Amino acid sequence: MSESNPSDDIRWSSRWLFVLAAAGSAVGLGNIWKFPYVAGENGGGAFVLIYLVCVGLVGAPIMMAEIALGREGRSSPITTMTKLAASAGRNSQWSIIGWMGVIAGVMILSFYAVIAGWALKYIGVLASDEFKNAGAEVVESTFNGLLASPVEMILWQTVFMVGTIWIVARGVSKGLEKAIRWFMPLLFVMLIVLLGYSLRSGGFEQGWQFMFDFKWEDVGPGTWIMALGQAFFTLSLGMGTMMVYGSYVPSEAKIGSTVATIVALDTVVAISAGLVIFPLVFVNNLDVAQGPGLMFVTMPLAFSQLPFGSIFGSVFFLLVSFAAITSAISLTEPAISYLVENYNSKRWRVAVGLGFLCWLLGLGTVFSFNIWADLKPVFGLNFFDLVDQISSNILLPLGGLLIAIFIAWRLPRKTVLGQIEIESERIWTLWKVVTGIVAPASVLVVFLNTFVPFF
Ligand code: PHE
Question: What is the DSSP letter of 417?
């Protein structure tokens, strides 16, 4: 372990900037692209309610735990876990949390860059007026054309990956802090404008019902695991991202209220994205369960009929790309911080190496939509679904489970109290029950329910 710890000199310039950075990590393709399509594939309301329960009961406490551990350790997640376990007299194997996070990060970024590449391409497609007054068939066939072309997908995936690595190599605080200061407010304004449009589209009621009509009979074991995985994914939990961002948090910032703000922002964006997309799906007679292409068909279609649609449309995809890049950066940070701190390597060298690895793995996702479309090696899942499900639905929740157990049962009370502002014995008990029992037990029950038949 190196003597000097890079996290020692990096701090967010204020609590507010940390909130923005963490929200920048949380708000991404997970909210705007994934949430609507996964909800669409899993019956809408049944999924949304369970997702909200997972966010509140499991996500929020685990985010608090991660930030607290990060700020206590002030290093990369692997080193933080090793250090904290040692100082609490626990097994050094707890560092596995950090390692799992590095693997999950590489897997997620591999497909993330491919999808973000689609968004990059669509900035230009919309700006070009190609879709002006076009019908659903034209929009659908453009998207299918993209999916059918590995070369084009690789091109855009590469552009996105190079951009991400370029920012990462320069160091997070300069580039990232600057970008999020104006990006987050813009995203909110854009969502409000689009909500206004979908309100008047004629499909709002149907969209609303689809999202909020909860029926137990629509809930299956798959719903739980997808909702839990989505909660972890969208809040950037279970892989050390919040831990490493937490390691840069000023000591005086309050963790409880900070987490509440981040979770609220993330949830509002996801729900708004659903309320924008679903009404447009119904009004245009599209298929809600069409999967990953949902956003790339409904949104261009909506813009094609909107005054100044080509401007709005390209701004929308520009914002999606920005949302994606601030998340992509955060996906690399657990691995990068570890490599820089331990091998004294230059940041840019590490960044390029990691980027190349993710890019290479991402080719599997590219091919899942064309030449490998029929290749479904395990559980009938193609390569993309497999990488996505293993990382989002297994590695992240498992990481979160271990984090919750560690902070609640393995760390001295004094250490926890030094990080999380808990003022009374009652609140301490509540914290302990939620973080130490409810959150891990929920993950465990969902795992058993999914992987052990007839549980
Ligand atoms: N939360 C990001 C999104 O919703 C994805 C992400 C997952 C980022 C895990 C970092 C860590 O798009």
Answer: H
